[in-house]
């Protein structure tokens, strides 16, 4: 077993089930907000997911920032319902969603214990594709802030590159003064959290609860279903 000094985590759907919080937050907002309250909740949710997935590709390619992504996602979703909206209205919807989504983020004792044990042996950090405004609230609500001090939380919005762009990993390594061989990267997205880090010279563990098939030839150190299983992977 290779000796690592540092474990870098993805955040969403790695340290907590973001997908469920996203859905709860969106469902509440669609039901409540005047832009969508009279529409079919599931149909709007599906449209937001579909347009969001399409737009995410442009975000990763740095065509849109996160504010534009959120505005365009709602504009395009509502265009499917013959409804055109102003940017301010989209921002208001986003604000309500963000609040509801963050309210749905809850601490998980098993994850907290696992992170606590890992923190006694490794330096821990986070590298997340996302806007700066929500990551720290998520960590606080998860009860994990103490394990991930601000200087070890790397946000793609601030760095200017998104995973799997090698430049985000190189920037993180430089900031932490680390060689790639010292780092184990852990996350749920094959391209962003496994293929990218391995290309950058790190090792990776794939969190794959749904049994997805690997998209490239890269070889992770292990494939696990939940983050707490990482304790077995790095067992001495
Ligand atoms: Mg993720």
Biggest sheet details? 6 strands, parallel
Q: How many domains make up the 3D coordinates?
A: 2
Instruction: Give the overall silhouette.
Output: globular
Order of SSEs:
EHHHHHEHEHHEHEEH
Helix content: 40-55%
Q: Identify the strand order in the major beta sheet.
A: 3-2-1-4-5-6
What is the class of the largest domain in the CATH system? Alpha Beta
By DSSP (H or I, 4+ residues per run), the number of helices equals 10
Q: Which characteristics define this entry?
A:
hydrolase, Rossmann fold, 49% helix, 236 residues, HAD-like_sf, binds magnesium ion, six-stranded parallel beta sheet, 11% strand, alpha/beta
Tell me about this structure.
The chain has a six-stranded parallel beta sheet. With 236 residues, it is of the alpha/beta class. It folds into two domains: 6-16 and 106-233, 3-Layer(aba) Sandwich (Rossmann fold); 19-103. Helix 1 (18-32) crosses helix 4 (87-103) and helix 2 packs antiparallel against helix 3 (66-79). The protein has helices at 18-32, 41-60, 66-79, 87-103, 109-119, 132-141, 156-159, 166-176, 190-199, 230-233; strands at residues 6-9, 123-128, 153-155, 183-187, 203-207, 222-224. It binds magnesium ion (MG). Magnesium ion is lined by residues 10, 12-14, 187-189.
């Amino acid at each position: 077993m290779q000796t690592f000094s540092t474990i870098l985590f993805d955040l969403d759907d790695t340290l907590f089930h973001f997908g469920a919080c996203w859905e709860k937050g969106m469902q509440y907002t669609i039901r409540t907000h005047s832009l969508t309250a009279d529409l079919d909740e599931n149909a709007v949710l599906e449209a937001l997911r579909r347009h969001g997935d399409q737009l995410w590709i442009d975000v990763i390619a740095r065509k849109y920032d996160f504010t534009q992504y959120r505005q365009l996602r709602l504009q395009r979703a509502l265009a499917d319902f013959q409804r055109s909206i102003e940017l301010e209205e989209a921002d208001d919807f986003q604000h309500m969603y963000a609040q509801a989504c963050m309210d749905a983020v809850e601490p998980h004792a098993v994850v907290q214990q696992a992170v606590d044990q890992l923190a006694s042996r490794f330096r821990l950090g986070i590298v997340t594709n996302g806007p700066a405004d929500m990551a720290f609230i998520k960590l606080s609500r998860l009860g994990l802030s103490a394990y991930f001090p601000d200087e070890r939380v790397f946000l793609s919005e601030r760095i200017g590159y998104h995973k799997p762009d090698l430049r985000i990993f190189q920037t993180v390594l430089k900031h932490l003064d680390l060689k790639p061989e010292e780092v184990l990267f852990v996350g749920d997205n094959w391209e962003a959290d496994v293929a990218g880090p391995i290309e950058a010279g790190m090792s990776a563990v794939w969190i794959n609860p749904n049994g997805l098939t690997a998209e490239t030839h890269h070889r992770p150190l292990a494939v696990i279903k939940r983050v707490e299983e990482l304790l077995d992977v790095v067992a001495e």
